[in-house]
Amino acid sequence: MVARAPRKRMYRSMQGKMIDIDKLRAANENVQAVGNMNVNARGDVLGAGGKVVTKKETVIQKYYEQPKGMVSDTPRPKAMPAPSKEPPKRMSKPVENKATIKKSAPKPKAQPKAKKGIDAALDGIE
Question: Which of 18, 21, 28, 70 could in theory staple to 9 by disulfide, Cβ–Cβ 3.0 to 4.6 A?
Fold first, then answer.
């Protein structure tokens, strides 16, 4: 198999001009990047006056040397909240026990109304 030559990143602009992105990046890698991180386009940390304080290679080296900690195989136990001395607050009306609920006396049945008119006259006849 024949190895291919690296392809240049050439783009056509909206106005029809051909732009080499790699060449553009290389020309502007020392320009301060937009934002509040104080780095240049390459990734070097910049100090006062735009001077390089820390190179990109040392920043990456420190990142990978920093220990991340060991992952444990067992899950961490959940922390139990400390018991409070006051009783818990209830949001709804407390339910009473059925044994403590007093039942009211049954209501007496209503007496039938006195019949009037024809109903009273026909009541005795069968």
Answer: 21
